[in-house]
Design goal:
This protein is 25% helix and 26% strand. By secondary structure, it is an alpha+beta fold. Strands 3, 4, 5, 6, 7, 8 and 23 form a seven-stranded antiparallel β-sheet that branches. The chain has a six-stranded mixed β-sheet with strand order 10-11-12-16-17-22, sandwiched between helices.
Amino acid sequence: MNRFFKYALISLIIGSTLSSCFKDNDDVFAGKSEINNFIYRGMNAFYLYKADIDVLANDRFANQEELEAFHDQYNAPEEFFESLVFDRSRTDRFSVIFQDYVALENILAGNTLSNGMRFGLVGETGSATDVFGYVRYVQPDTSAERENVERGMIFNAVDGVRLTRDNVSSLLTQNNYVIGLASLNSGVSTSNGIEITLTKEVVQQDPILVTEVIDQGTQKIGYLMYTGFLSQFDEQLNGVFGDFKAQGVTHLVLDLRYNGGGSVNTAIILGSLISGNPVSDVYSTEEWNPDVQTQLQTSNPTQLTNLFKNETNSGTVLHTLDLNKVHIITTGNSASASELVINSLDPYINVVQVGGDTAGKFQASVTLYDSADFRRSAANPSHRYAMQPLVLKSLNSVGNTDYFDGLIPDIAQDEDFENLGILGDVNEPLLARCLDDILLNGRSSRYSSPMVSYDEIMGSNELEPFGNEMWKELPN
């Protein structure tokens, strides 16, 4: 059975334990406040931090009327949903609700409205307000590629308006806009008068951005720039490793510096491709809220354990490299499933993390629809609201989790926005640092971080819904 369905069906199993007033979900939650009732029912059943939200207690409301009187005080479903989120600034930065689950499904499938320019936003040195943007990479077959936008370009204006900390969201979330290019010197940008018009369109993200096999003396080093854990590309990902294996790759540099996450299942496949652990080894374990955790432990505790894999979901044998060491490039933009790979491999092989601290997201979510079992097939036809709340946290095989401040690199190396380099090129600073470490077998190298201390504020991921998430696989 699809793992998502198994988790969704838990809500039916634990229904009797939630509260005496919620025995018949179909009948009890019919009424004028359908959306808010759905929100409460889903968060009450599944929310990871349920125990920290008083109003989600199973005995909080004596009857349905009390519940509806409580949530009627909120003007919109989004406002009610937000009231049920725990510690938004630190603990739960990621639970979301969508008015249209079709839009959510497209995002989870990697189909997004994008102009193809993936960027970061940095505070201008010496200014409390001004911001400049830098291009991280460009997606193929997009407006940005057609307009010859390239990695390393600097821009500091949109539609003729200087970028500031207050206006970046409104300016850069438009469907069409004009960027004003600039030069950068010691963290200060200067406009150069060149403008580029960009148009957003529906784009299917291909997460396999760059692959290379680098010859370094007698060594063959595979390089993979991977930008998102999308399950529909698992076969292509396996093919990349098949090519690495055929070329005799003995070292791997996995570049996750801009990877905001995605599918847990794909994260397990990627980790398995790297290390080749037997399928009896624990990749990660899951911790849900106490109600769900108890039911899972009672009914089938193996559901709480994710094991390494030796094949894709379609049955293709994995082309594992069977490495005992891997270099993984990270920044503060490496989140969720990216961190899951690092954390899960760490007990088994030597994971050399190069770059910056990761984002600090160890929780995963599932999609909840307004139906009796929270599945899509029987969703309430009167609205299209769906939720993606945090429902579990991941632990590696030795129990490491709760890395709120991110995973700390073994080799610290910040990106230099005045010298970003070309992804996959041996002279690109972070890749060069990895290659140097491989060559010296872990001894100290000559590289150092840039002289300028940059204040990176956010990136294009954070300006998009669900940009840095980790989720269980969706149903077919």
